[in-house]
Batch of 2 targets.
Target 1
Amino acid sequence: MATRLGIPDLLGSAPMNEHVVQEGSTPLMAQYLEIKAAHADYLLFYRMGDFYELFFGDAVKAAEALDIALTKRGKHLGDDIPMCGVPVHAAEHYLEKLIRKGFRVAVCEQVEDPAEAKRRGAKAVVRREVVRLVTPGTLTEDTLLEPRAANLLAALGASGDDFALAAADMSTGEFTAGAVTAADLAAELARLGPRELLVPERLLAEAAFAPTLKALAGALTPMPSVKFDSASGERALKSLYRVAALDGFGAFSRAELSAAGALVGYLELTQKGKLPALKPPARISERTFMGIDAATRRNLELVETLNGTRTGSLLACIDRTVTAGGARELAARLASPLTDVRAIRVRHDAVAFFLNESDLRRSVREDLRRVPDIARALARVSVGRSGPRDLAALRDGINAAQALGAKLAVFDDALKPSAGEAQEARERLQSGLTQTRALFERLEKCLIAEPPFLVRDGGYIAAGAHPPLDDVRSLRDESRKVIASLEARYREESGVSQLKIRHNGVLGYFIELTPQHAEKLQSARARELFRHRQTIGSAVRFSTDELATLAGRIAEAAEKALAIEKELFDAMVSDVLGVAGALSDIAGALAVFDAALALAELAQEQRYTRPRVDESLSFAIERGRHPVVEAALAAEHAGPFVPNDCDLSREGGQRLWLVTGPNMAGKSTFLRQNAVIAILAQMGSFVPAERARIGIVDRLFSRVGAADDLARGRSTFMVEMVETAAILNQATERSLVILDEIGRGTATFDGLAIAWASVEHLHETNRARALFATHYHELTALASRLDQLACVTMRVSEWNDAIVFLHEVAKGAADRSYGIHVAKLAGLPEAVVRRAEEVLRALEEGREGHKPLARIDDLPLFSVSAPVRMADGKASAVEAALREVLPDTLTPKAALDLVYALKAMLIKT
Ligand code: ADP
Ligand code: MG
């Protein structure tokens, strides 16, 4: 671990060593404090020689977060100054840790040569400036980023009572803006998933925003409200795109200008003026994407599970991409399913094309595997943070893209009429390749095959690329050869065959002898030739005029070579920036190819079919499946997934289905699978069904499972009601609604009453296509009064007093809930099960007019008075076995097996 314990060690390497801190503010401390004051919200990485140092409170926080030693350095106003530091060469690793822990960092560099400062006077402090603010939404380093996830920066703008959200991805240059209301904000943020959101300070306190903003925690960056001024926003955008008016990009509202302007301003601030190549902002309207609120996203486990892991999510289940850019594209599509029929069909066309051309698909996917992350390398180049390896990534990316383009060219005739977005991507790729041909040739000629990470040490420019560089390099190499030949000559002259010429960072080149041999150099001639430089325990070191001259020449040549390499690097960087748009087109096209190919691969592998998507109000799914549950069953060898139909179409179907059936019968799975199929269809994927016709779903609502929202301090029932209210208030004829067991979180009768009223409202007022799962059989009575309501039930078969789940959806209603059967499967003690059966019978009779409680009072208490015991008073084998059972850990299958095992024991006894 790179911490230093002693101050002397630090002073040895720092150029400021002449200013040891004493009482009061030294010039160095004064400079530090001034810079720190301007960046109070950030940990200040203050460059001193080969280290970034942190002082005072920053040091205490960083030392703890990084698990490095906290030391002190001198005194400030009489107190010790806490200090810790990280070596510059390993800084990225520490930055990563700090960012993950929610810190933001200001990186302050020395911006002049220490020698220059000295010229200003012995007390002068090296000039330093903050060159970058490291915040979650503005990261570019691969070590700090998730390769397969986007890293969005968003800003919430305001103008009067209008609000807007702008979002940008530095790696793709994608930039969007759109109106948002306080009510929609949470849903829109859930769709975008920004790593950082800029908000005007004044909105933090507003009741309509506070809960949503608070939930963002570390991703929230409050800024002074003046930064969101829409007039300055407009000016900033005009100057960024060098246009006199923004009309060409669309008609932006004041709020959109406020958001987009604040975002651009923040990028300028954090990147210290160097902006990534942002595309002109695209306007997003609420019609662009299927509306999916935050709760529905969570409930359907689209990109992460309820436990917050990617594994087990729909995204993880369907992702067959082979590049990071493709993975980000696919994730973005899943997060934002489209509502425009044409745009969706264009995506389906591409999937269909690649599904058909399976040889082409395989071979292009092989090529794609070798494509580096062009978008992120380009982002680093744009903000001046790239190294030779980024240029090599661009070179290799273009190269792979060229091969791919050539391969696709063969298919041009087939692509044209029918391949949808594959054809569009092909054109984009081609134009990108044409514009980057010169750049590619230059990179190919100038860079070595596998260049180092850093510019600093040189050694990345290929031999033969630039004659002047070759000249200084050969000068350097010649001198090295001369030095090697010197060794032989000096051995001869001194008569010491063990004499060596060596090199280190401090002395440069020197002649080394052991102390005994050194004594032999006492001759006058030898003493004249060899000048003593240093004696250490095991060696005596000398130099000669000749060696010094050669060494000087080598150093000079090396320095010159470095300078030339840097110059060539800068020239290549500016070449890259000159065609940034074309490179981003290539990256974008490759991502589209990867996503389309991956969806085709998935369709082939999992037998997905092309859905028919249109403007109708149909929703007809034949033999649909839930991809995640199906995969889980397959992984556990737990039998096949049972496909099910669902028809909520206006024509021929009934648009509201009431789904009954016992627990564990598959109700929730059925509901979710239909929602998932709608999402997959509209994101441009094929769907896990034999046939599907879907009239565009404008908004998807779900209320699934009992997701406790303890984090936000609401009870399960409250969450349930909040989500239900949102649905009943907002769903329209175009929406798809999934309601799973609402009313469950409260007592039977008011729960039933709420469920009852909700079904009526959905049917009469919302008129949405809807699936409603419930354990309240009473609701099935509604079927006779509501003509668009159909009752379906999950079939079970009763067998030997046990039930078997068939997972089949059938017309009709469950006649009872089988709750006690399920309890039995779960291993509830026999006595409890029997008692429950008694109570149930009493309750059912009670419903028919008797007083249930009186009847129950009459029932003997089995569990207390008559436990099943062996005649000798010992517990039975069945009891003993039951005692071992942990019902919560049983899978349905294990529960069923248990029943058989218990039954077998009964027969034995
Ligand atoms: P419910 O909501 O009725 O209690 P779930 O939908 O949670 O039931 O399903 C319980 C379990 O049954 C699932 O975890 C899955 O293992 C299995 N299951 C559900 N639907 C199917 C199906 N169509 N085919 C096979 N197994 C299924
Ligand atoms: Mg359920």
Target 2
Amino acid sequence: MELLKQRIREEGIVLNNRVLKVDSFLNHQIDPQLFKAIGKEIADCYRDAGVQRIVTIEASGIALALMAALELDVPLVFARKKKSILMVDDVYHSVVYSYTKEENYDITISKKFLPAGEKVLIIDDFLASGEAAMGLAKLVKDAGDEVVGMAIAIEKSFQPGRERLENAGFRVESLVRIKEFKDNECIFLED
Ligand code: 5GP
């Protein structure tokens, strides 16, 4: 997606050739027009897949997923990173290792928002090791649903996430694929 690449080139900050900071339009301040375009792009990839629900993870996935959910006209549910005391035991649960925070955390979705027998699209902002996406897929499968695919805004293709997800049998669509970070600059896969 050229528009997203352009924003990364202009505003992205690469830290230690490891992490891309996109706080000015994606992870902190949000550009609604860009998100609208991202939502349409994701929806176009999966329009014929029979998606019935979108699942993402708080916080940064939510706004992206919302725009896609609007386009596909399906409900959206996001996994919480901490179990709410209101949720008691009625949740699907998984453990995810955080690439950026370097620690494990729990993710949960209330069972009533993940009814069985649906086709689910998983959305996230970044793909690195594939931990978050695999954790979300576990919740979806535990619910008795089918993962029809995963949509990622920014894939770091030099990390093992895509391979891991594809080996597990998932369709992965990324809007932008980063081949490498070189001297703290992004090199895109198609360039
Ligand atoms: P994974 O679970 O695939 O290892 O990493 C994906 C998750 O880690 C995303 O949900 C995202 O929040 C975070 N993440 C991984 N790499 C980056 C990065 O380079 N920049 C930012 N901003 N977040 C990242």
